[in-house]
Every structure is written in structure tokens, then in C-alpha cells.
């Protein structure tokens, strides 16, 4: 497949594909008779994997290291697995932080919902005359 089709199918721009190829994240593509890049469809699986690494926050230098190990072949599988296990632990820690932050947001939102409910109840009470508006005082006997 040509670079335009790969760009469309992968969601990357042609510029990004060429950049990834230049820095070593993607293997150099074969060239056709006219010198245009000709990619095998299997590259889409690798691009999707790189996108997952990027989405989960793996630094590009680690992605490059992983790609270099992958190019070296089967003998590097233990090191690649260890890299992914370390990255997985970092991702899990960030997910836990995000979940804790989400709980705080949920509590804050619930607090606003509670305030809204209390305000509606207060307004309803004012309309039925059960409560006096704020700022009104009950007359008291004067002390001399």
C-alpha cells in the first residue's frame, strides 16, 4: 500500500509516517519500481501498537528502544517483555491516580447537586410561606 493509503488507514499523516520511519519507529518501506514507498498491510498492526504505547504515555525514547529490540528478533523477547511490564506498572499507577481524582470530582459534583436540591427546597418553602426570607427579623421586646 502507498503512503497515502497507509495514512488514511492508520490515522497518521504521511509526514508522521515518514518521520517515524526516519527515527526508527517504523521500518523502512520497500520501494516500488517508481521509487514510491510500498507498505505491507502488516505495518498497520505495528502502528496500532505504537499508538497504544503513545496513548499510555510511553516516552518516545522507550518506544525507539522497543522498536530496535523488535528489529533484532526473537532473542530480545525477554527484554521487550520486561519493558512492557515496567510500563504497565506505570500505567496502572496513573490509572489509580486518575480514579482517585475522579472520585474527588464525583464528590464535588454531588455536592453541587445537593446544593441545587437544597435551593429548590428552600425556594419551594418560601412560596408556601413556611420560611421567612432572609433578612427579615422577628420583632423582640426592647430592654430598657
Properties at a glance:
144 residues, two-stranded antiparallel ribbon, 2 strands
Please provide a written account of the structure:
With 144 residues, this protein is mainly alpha-helical. It is built from 5 helices and 2 strands. The protein has helices at residues 3-10, 14-23, 43-55, 60-72, 77-128; strands at 30-31, 37-38. A hairpin with a 5-residue loop joins strand 1 and strand 2 (37-38).
Summarize the structure.
This protein is mostly helical and 144 residues long. The protein has helices at 3-10, 14-23, 43-55, 60-72, 77-128, and strands spanning 30-31, 37-38. Strands 1-2 form a two-stranded antiparallel sheet.
Strand order of the largest sheet: 1-2
User: In which range does the helix fraction lie?
Assistant: 55-70%
Number of DSSP strands? 2
- The ordered H/E elements are HHEEHHH
Strand content: under 5%
Query: Globular, elongated, flat, extended or rod-shaped: what is the shape?
Result: elongated
* Count of DSSP-assigned helices: 5
CA-based gyration radius: 31 Å
Distance from N terminus to C terminus (CA atoms, Å) equals 99 Å
Ranges with pLDDT <50 over ≥5 residues? none
Oligomer: single chain
Content-based structural category? mainly alpha
**Main sheet makeup:** 2 strands, antiparallel
Mean pLDDT equals 89
